[in-house]
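Recap from last week: sequence in, structure out.
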Amino acid sequence: MEPKKIPVQVLQAVFKDLAKGSEKAVGTYLYKGYRIQVSRYQSSGTERSAQLYKRRRENGLCVRCGAKVTKKNPSTGKLYRLATSIGRKSTVPDGTPAVVRRRTTAGVPPITRHA
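Predicted structure tokens:
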């Protein structure tokens, strides 16, 4: 994700959140041409991705690409986690389904396994 440009007041608020130990301070910021990255020291990739997915869900974004999700699940009333363009039936730029295109353009014989 791109760093957010912030004024000095927001930078001071980030430092206050950091002093409190709040998770709100985690992020990448841009202040006067300097990139300031706030993250936990030695956090695992699982923890970082969980925080990213949590942040994206809270903001109503697709967990995979970050696009705005507008469709709601009719049974729960909650927003779907994925954008409609990423679902299983995704298409390539020329409009053909991705799965069909891969099969027809491969031109390579299927892999055979030998015992």
